[in-house]
Each structure stands twice: as C-alpha cells, then as structure tokens.
Amino acid sequence: MRQDIKKAFSDVFGKTEELRVFFAPGRVNLIGEHTDYNGGYVFPCALTIGTYAAVRERGDRLVRMYSENFKEDGIKECSLDDIRYKEEDGWANYPKGVMAEYLGSGFSLPHGFDIVFWGNIPNGAGLSSSASIELVTAVIFNQSHHLQADMLDLVKMAQAAENSFIGVNCGIMDQFAIGMGKKHHAMLLDCDTLSYEYAKLNMSGLSLVIANTNKKRSLAGSGYNKRRQECREALQDLQKHLSIQSLGELAPSAFDTRAGLIQNETNRRRAKHAVYENYRAKKTAEMFSKNELGQIGELMRESHLSLRHDYEVTSPELDALAEAAWSHGGVIGSRMTGAGFGGCTISIVKEDAVQDFIETAGARYKEQTGRKADFYTADIGAGARELKEDDYGDSGTCGTFDPIRPAKRTDFTP
Ligand code: GLA
After folding, report:
1. 398 falls in which pLDDT band (50, 70, 90)?
2. What would the pLDDT profile of 361-393 be if each residue is shown by its tens digit?
3. C-alpha R_g of the chain
4. How many angstroms separate the alpha carbon of residue 103 from the centre of ligand 1?
5. Would you put residue 15 in left (φ > 0), alpha (ψ -120 to 50) or beta?
6. To test the ligand 1 pocket, which listed residue (28, 31, 34) has its Cβ within 8 A of the most ligand atoms?
7. How many whole angstroms from 337 Cα to the centroid of ligand 1?
8. pLDDT tens-digit series, residues 177-190
C-alpha cells in the first residue's frame, strides 16, 4: 500500500523524496444505533480498511488534494486563508471542513500540502468513509504542524466539521471509533461523558461479516437530521415533568411508565428505540465479556427490529439481508449497522459457515430484491495514525487501486 500510494502521488504531483503516509480506518458499529446523539452508549470498532493519504509539505498556503476514488474530479485546491464549502468540491469538502475547524479553534496552520487520498471503504455503505477522511486529515495537520492536539481533540474537531461545514448533525460515534480504535477490540463508549472501555472480543471460531446492500444512502439527504429532531422533541416533552438531560438517562422500565408524557406517537416510538437500544448496547458488551453468544444474537435481532419498526431507518434491502441471516444456522446474530436508510448489515457468523452463509444469503437477497450484495469479512484494526516504516496499514497487501475493493473481500455472484 505504501508503494502504491507513493506511486499515485508521483503520478499526480511529481516525484518526491519527502512523502509521509497517513491512515484512518472505517468503523462498524456492533450495536447501539442512533444512541450517540441521545446521550447513550455505542459499541463500535475500527476496521482494517480505511483511507490512506500520501502527503508532501508545500512552502505556501495552498492545499492541493486528489482522490484516487474520484479521479474524474481531478485536483481540488484551496487556500488556508479562504476555506469555504463549495458544492462543486464534492468529497474535498470533508478535509476542508477539518482545516476550517483547526483555524476556527485558533490553531496556526503555517503552510499547506499536496495530498493524495485513497480509500478502500465502500462509499455510502454506512462504514464511515467520510469520518475516515476527516480523521486522516486531522492527523496530517496535527503531526505535520506539531500542533500537539490529543486524539480526543481531533475526534471532536472532525465531528464539528461534519456538523457545521458539511451540515450533517451526526453524533460522535464514528469519529471516536476511528480516532480511538484498537486492534481486536470494540469500544463501549458513553456518549454523554465520553468515558469508554475497550472490550477485547473473543472471536475464536467466529467471523464478523459485513454485507453491503449496495443501496447507497446519503446522510445529508436522509432522515437523519429529522430523527434527531424527533428525539429532541420527545425529550422536551419528558423534561416538562422529569429532570433529565438526555434520553440516555432513562432505563427501559422508567421510560415505559413515562412514555405517555410524549405527545406525538411517532416521537414516542423514536424515544423508545433510543432508550431500549442504549440498554441493549450495554447488555451486549456485558454478554461479550461472558461469551454469551445466544444472548448477543437475540440483542442484535431486537436492535434491528426496533430500528425497523420504531425508528424506521431500515430499508427493504436491509430487512431482506437481516432476515436471510437470521434464518441461517451458522449465524449468531445480525443487524443493520450505521445510520441506516441503506448501507450494510453486520453479522457474527461461525467461521466454518461463512462461505455457505454468503452463498445462501446472497442468493436469497438477489431473489428478493433483484440486487447483488457484496460480502466482506471484517477485521478489527487500530485507530488513525501516521504510518511509519514498519506499519503498512492493515490492508497492506492490497496491491491495486480499486475504489471499493477491501483487502479481504469475498464476492459471490449467485
Ligand atoms: C451515523 C452518525 C453517527 C450515529 C450513527 C447511528 O453513522 O454519523 O453519529 O448517529 O449514524 O448510530
């Protein structure tokens, strides 16, 4: 990977000896969906696929950026003295948003860079390709300008960039998981206090399989901000009678006795999901520590059903994939992951059943939706960082540039 991205850099910006290479992973959330902006818990992990960046310092204040994933867009350019959101800059608005956050937070950015990005996270699949390019940019500026911000600051700046520059009111889960990821570990994060624990996942004999519906979703154009608003309204109704700051403070039983205080029926269902999902996230982490696979499977299924019926962010494609997984004997658990409205499911599958699962679920999905699903076995990797000589990034063996080709990908055409 290091050589590939260096070559891409020299093709675009010319040969150079002074390249540095950075990497930020994608993330998958095991459970705890739409709880982060409700002051609840999430249980995500960083992946080994992600966004690479080859970087050379410039003597002036220009930043020139090129993405191997969007070659047709050519080089995007901005000055550190004039950073504005521009529709026509497309993907480059994400790194620009991070630069704007640095400047807005009072950091001095003395010079610009030439940067080539390349990512192997399927775009629009709910695996956080946008947070990944944000964090890799944040690390580039932090390291190269010796800004000494800690990772949590970078995480918060990346989230702020997404909120104010891109206009998606996301919570902190994606940026946190990508910044703070740890190999072989998931993170149980309390999004209210940002306290967290790493949980080593005992995956012996098991695989994490991500299935992409190939139905892209766009957060900005989706109902994501609407769901946030509905939860806020539900909270405001509850606050007229209860002294709580977030839905995450309510246990399911406390919610059940007060649910009637929420005036609007839709908002009541949204809040119910947030409260119960928060409980499920904590419970799942506990069940992982006890290796209670049966319970984990049940919690994942409940999560999906709640996202389907109460939060209404699944899609016929996500439901078809989840149902196909539930009916397979080798599957421990399965659910949609990420924001929803399309994207991916995550399944825990017995290692020796993975191939059969992919074939059977893939065929069933094709039959029901007419679409082809892509399956990936996911490995849990470390967080955003500069790649040193002995660190090739986790998908370092992937030799070719293919925008949506993770290192370990299992295609199946039924
Ligand atoms: C997106 C957002 C996250 C989180 C999830 C849903 O990925 O970026 O902050 O809200 O959706 O759990």
Report:
1. very low
2. 999 999 999 999 999 998 999 999 999 876 655
3. 21
4. 25
5. beta
6. 34
7. 9
8. 999 999 999 999 99
**46-55 average pLDDT score:** 97
Active site residue 237: no
Other CB atoms within a 10 A radius of the CB of residue 241 amount to 9
Q: What is the pTM of this model?
A: 0.93
Whole-number Å distance between alpha carbons of 133 and 92: 9
Atom of ligand 1 nearest to the CA of 128: 7
**Ligand 1 pocket mutation, candidates 135, 173, 278, 306, criterion most atoms within 8 A of CB:** 173
